[in-house]
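It is worth pausing here to work through a concrete case rather than discussing structure prediction in the abstract. The textbook approach is simple: state the sequence, then state the predicted structure, then interpret. We follow exactly that order.
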Amino acid sequence: MADKTATKTTPQADRSTPRTGGSGVTREQLIGLLNEDLAREYQAIIAYVVYSQTLKGAKYMNIAAELEAHAGEELQHALIIANQIDYLGGMPTVAVKPVKTSENAEDMLRFDLENENETVRNYRERVRQCEALGEYAIAEHIRDILVQEQEHQIDLATALGIDVPDAGEPRERG
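Step two, the predicted structure:
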């Protein structure tokens, strides 16, 4: 029978433990990846604010209002991701990924769709990485965000009159 007086440490109690899950990602690497995701959320906030206010033409008025709503959702995503980075013992980034702009409304919507595709790919991978590390609560937060990101994909693809692209697997980083 096991000694019941032994103290049990949880991963949160010892954040210095360089655990890796089946994904081969350490907690420190997860913090870095989440910071990349956070920088992408900042990018999305800026893009949605600018695009929602600069789209021209009657056929884009409904999507402009939708993009404005997306900006607020992306801010909530950024807050959630920053909170999870802090929980893991990291410092949330202040860096922003570059924002593409255009005078052409369709180009702006395509830029947004490309960014959402990348975000969906990355968050799908992040869920697997979090679960491999035993960080199930973080994985659940990311799943909730993923639902909204996929809704953004649908909105953008619909506005462009195309099928929702398959976000597929994350790209290899090189």
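Step three, interpretation. The chain has four helices and no strands. Helices lie at 27-54, 61-87, 105-132, 136-160.
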